[in-house]
User: Fold these one by one.
Assistant:
Number 1:
Amino acid sequence: MRLLGIKTSRNGGPTVIEQVEQYVAAHREEYLARLMEFLRIPSVSTDPEGVRDTHRAAEWVRDLLGAAGLEAELVETPKHPVVIADSGPPAGDGPTLLLYGHYDVQPAGELDLWSSPPFEPEVRDGRIYARGSADDKGQLLTHLLALEAWRKVGADLPVRVKCLIEGEEEIGSVNLEPVVREHRQRLACDYIALSDTAKLDDDTPAITYGTKGLVYKEIRVYGPSADLHSGSFGGSVSNPGNVLADIVASLKDGDQRVTIPGFYDAVRSISPAEREQMAALPFDERAYLKSLGSPSLVGEAGFSVQQRRWCRPTLDVNGLFGGYMGAGAATIIPAWAGAKVSMRIVPDQDPKSISQAFDEAVRRAAGSDVRVEIDTLAAAGAYMCPIDSPGAQAAARAIEAGFGKAPVFVREGGTLPILPMFKEILGADSLMMGFALPNCNLHSPDEFLVLEDFHAGIRTAVHLPRMLAELQTEPKSAVGDTAR
Ligand SMILES: [Zn+2]
């Protein structure tokens, strides 16, 4: 990918973008100090004791954005506030960018497992260690500091920039959707950018353009009203344990395909261009197998490991329980047995239809000799951003400018329910620009962010609004494919 030429100003001095770049290059020390200040606030959203700290973190973000020239305010929710900010209407009519991030963090967990205290950030070997360094304070701060840098050199942002920074990401974004619905006009935008994902590896930045959805079920099979003696009563009633095993076994066939009728009907196929692009990514199957410690790799017939992980829906038992689970033998026919089963779904599977089809298949497999209860514990859609959109291409160019290397486009097997929510309410696609390492210990002890990646992230964020302004007016590039 070619970088856009940086024009010199008329008088031969540095252009605006060069001035912003020089500004951020000159403030590395200060940026590190500011990151440490942000990380010292223990904004653990799940901790009822931490309400004052989460509020303090929200105010810290609001004040930074306010000082950077945006109109910024706290929107209170039943739990933790959301920061909404807006740089205001631009002179021209370019696109509007919405930056999303979260200021809350996971709990520290066991303190003994940390090499340095989780809320006393420490730099070791070019990495900053602290809870929230990667997820998400360090990554979020890159964007906020970039906005500030534009302001500091006295330049107008090349596009209108809005911010939506929440404090409940680590507890399921419970109050975010009502806030987005209520403020949909204020948050109206063309693209959403977030940095809360990872690079492909140490040297390769990545844009994540797709996530899987999740339908999570709990099945309970009930037989006799109490556990029965398996000798006295065996052979005369249906055994819920056996029936549960039959149900689970019936959900997949020998080719590891899900047998639920209609399950694959809406699955978007992998386009030839996406196939090619995925095959070109470095992936060592042997090293992968070794890292998992599994005897072999197994999955849906006809697809590569990466295709199965990123593009194909899956069904997995997450837990089986019921009957006698203690030591030794207890000869019973259990009164009941249960299973937790998750399905990771892909575009364009509908969580509701999949949920319903699952229930019907389970009831059919269970027959009429037992009673079955099925609970839906989660139902969220998949998300995919077309990678040939001007937004995705601008994000790629910004990363190339910031990291000195073009990013790869990757998908993700995990689920981010806010992305389909943004798409539905705001109609905008999300660009996931990850600056953390895949092994950055997020949610674990010794979470870290590589300092050079922090600074490269700031440079990227500086270029993003400019690339968006320039690419919006260019004809669509031939790079990538929407893979619809
Ligand atoms: Zn996060």
Number 2:
Amino acid sequence: MTSRDKIVEAIIELDEQAALELADGRIKSGTEPVEILERCREGMSLVGEKFESGDFFLSEMIMAAEIFNQIMNIVRPHLKSALSEPRGKVVIGTVEGDVHDIGKNIAIALLKAEGFDIVDLGVDVPPATFVEAIREHEPDIVGMSSLLTVALETTKQTIDAITEAGLRDKVRIIVGGGRIDSHATEYIKPDASTDNAAQGVRMCIGLMRGEGV
Ligand code: B12
């Protein structure tokens, strides 16, 4: 049997107290915040598998999300502070039909730590709201999060709406979330895509420099 990281174990056992104590202890002993978040993501993947196989109900998935949010509260203040000059502006949201926001919120925390200005549109964001927000805030980058297979369709519709509004040339688009693979990317056609927030931040820095990613 493979031995799992203790924080992964605490998340899948829904042991909130142990998970929070472990996160706090690791921060105090100097573990990189991003490393802690990566372990938590592993835990959430296993929670997802348990839900899929019927071992967990929706209520248990909600409980795991709550534990993750509490860990985020411990970790967030320790992410590196922002640069003095903003690197660029990102409008970000979870697409219509999808209410998952943990991944989006991690992406936001890491982007802020790298000096990006963020406009967070929240979850279940209709295409028209993305379009309005681009007109209002004139971002350099638009970030979309989608975790459900069905939300890949709304992600595509959102990009189509941006194109139809004549705004596609004015922004670079990055799409993130656990269902984003090469097939999804081929279908949706963003400028960049990832299932990893730290990589997403590096891609945003590249997009600001005009690099292809
Ligand atoms: C927690 C959870 C929930 C919580 C969400 C709480 C919240 N506030 O977010 C609740 C209980 C509400 C929920 C509901 C549902 N869920 Co759910 N959920 C999960 C679970 C267990 C974890 C998701 C998570 O937070 N992961 C941790 C984060 C850190 O990972 P992440 O999201 O991938 O994000 C990382 C990267 O992708 C990236 N990233 C994400 N977004 C972005 C955006 C940008 C711009 C960038 C750069 C990067 C980036 O950065 C993050 C860090 O690296 C997953 C399992 C899984 N494997 O994903 C299922 C899962 C996503 N859910 C699933 C399902 C089916 C549902 C429901 C339909 C269940 C139901 N019957 O009602 C509903 C749908 C509700 C809706 N309309 O959206 C399925 C989806 C299956 C599919 N293929 O479509 C999954 C995969 C579980 C499973 N294996 O069956 N869920």
